[in-house]
Amino acid sequence: MSFTRDLGVLLWKELLDLYRDRRTLFTSILLPLISLPLIGFMGIALVEQQPVLVAVVDLDNTTARNQLLNITVSSRWLAGNTTRILEKFGYNVTISHSIDIVKNPDIDVALIIPKGFSRNASSLNNTARVKVLRRAGVQAAVRAESTIYSIINVFSRNISDAKLNAVIRLLGLNATIPALRNPVTARTEVVGISGQPVSRAIVLRNAFARILVLAFSFVVTPAASYVIDGIIGERERKTIELLLASPTTPQRIIYAKLVAATLLGLITALADIIGLVVYMVSVSIVSGVPFGVIIDPLLLILHSITAFFTILSTISIALPFITRTRGIRSASNIVSLVTIVALVFFFTGFFVDYIRLPSEILIPLYLIPFTHSILVIQGYVLGYVSRALIHLAVLSIASIALLIIASKTINTEKLLIAPL
Amino acid sequence: MTGRDMLVVNDLHKIYDDGTHAVKGLSFTLKQGEIYGLIGPNGAGKSTTLRMIATLIKPTRGSIYLNGVDVVKEPLKARKMIGYLPEEAEVYPRLTGREHLLFYARLYGIENIEETVEYGAEISGLGDKLDKKAGEYSKGMKRRLLLALVLMRSPQLAILDEPTSGLDVYASVRVRRIIKEYVSKTGHSVILSSHNMLEVEYLCDRVSFIINGKIITTGSPSELKARYNALNLEEAFVKAVEEHG
Ligand SMILES: Nc1ncnc2c1ncn2[C@@H]1O[C@H](COP(=O)(O)OP(=O)(O)OP(=O)(O)O)[C@@H](O)[C@H]1O
Ligand SMILES: [Mg+2]
Hints:
heterodimer; A: 2 domains; four-stranded mixed β-sheet; two-stranded antiparallel sheet; 6 strands; B: alpha/beta
């Protein structure tokens, strides 16, 4: 009988069965729908929400006046401003006049204003040194630290402005402050590959692409377990023998399962994207960047096609092992090995720009199909569109080749009787 | 009532990968319209033989011809003529009985699907239950559905591996009636294995005792009873096994 007819009939049965298997459908859709926004939320929002305790220790607690320059500096201003600004950013701040407070293990960051601060800061020949203590290993403390540094910079700059103004006035110079303080300036612009400045929107798009790469891992797992269950499950549930006795080939039986698994994977991918879009909409609301700028429909299409071939190659690699294993549990273990490799790639793809890796590292990685999956998305987002399409072509050819190799290993007797 | 040779099995051997020599040189023929039974103790090689005829496993040696088609070389061609009921077969729990019939009718590329499914429904005798999920069926109902899947296409050779195993008396009687009616209606052939001597006596025109992968004797139930000087087939079988034990 014809290939397409056989496949159609077999697929009809697979899909009918899958459609009735609400639990599998539900979990396959729900998993990415919940987990992706959750990862985004945990990764960004929660880190920001993590309470950080800051102590402002004003050991000086004086106001000093420089008569000559006619300026006044108070340690209380620095302590007060720092407290106010940090609190506005959501930190918990305690002001103290005793160094003992830093012994409290809950304090993540401390700003210590030493004795003589106001006097030194207002003088013409001394600098005032403040100290920042930061607890090691607390990620959010780093951000509090940098906020404190910017407050101190502004504070220092204001005093410097006042001092320079006073000096210019005293000397009767025709001078401007920037000319005295910053005769040379530099500025960095973050740019894309064609050289134009990169907007906040593009930065967000890149973040979106990273999550898309991560999303492959949610697509591969349910599809792989569906195939395991589809093949070994039919053997264990004793429905396979009748099926194998029919005038179709074992290859076609498996292909129908692969198509069903891939469809399930694509449904999962769709749920992925919905989850991501929900997440990105909230990011766009928070960041004020229009949503349409972040989400590129072409990228989503590319993601779906890449997901399809990623699933296909994962399953094809696992297939010879699946068909030769007796039980669902041992098959799952073997397939886990393959999916863990996939997961490692996709998780690192979340952090690493594969496209930037030096070629002596990247070229050996080309042997693993998942590298191409990552490069399709990263390449496209970073503007290497033709390179992305080449990787998509390689991925699709590789996955089909793997499938052909895998299907050569399938035969009726091995499917029916697995080794112990 | 029986006609030309339709199944010719010659010097059939099966050695499994682990070295088990399950079938050791079986030869027999099956005529058109005949019901042929394989009787033997557990592990005698009945299922292995039936699976080889059903093209599911490859013989290590020997040949099987079905209506002149080399079953080993052309399994797909042979499968169209064969209906095989495995010893242990299950239904898809989430599919209804009717969906099973539809699926297998389509899979065999049958032309008049509706008629075939109707015939299958009739064989199964499941009535209204046919539209319920098969997972809800009793063992007997499942076995009848499976038998309907196998017979609805009117295969020229039905291979039934312990068709009534695990069924109660009433369910077994129904299944036997289905098989008997099938043969008398279509004139096709059946090869079956069984542990139930009553069943074999009721159904089979010819029986082989098979022990340790070898046929030790063949004949009609009455011939076998006479040969072993036994009152019934069971006694004949016990005597045969003791002789060859
Ligand atoms: N997949 C297999 N691998 C190795 N040996 C097997 C396999 N299947 C069956 N055997 C062995 O082959 C022999 C024949 O088994 P078979 O299932 O054909 O017997 P049977 O006559 O159908 O028995 P029963 O009445 O219990 O169904 C037995 O010794 C059995 O252990
Ligand atoms: Mg058996």
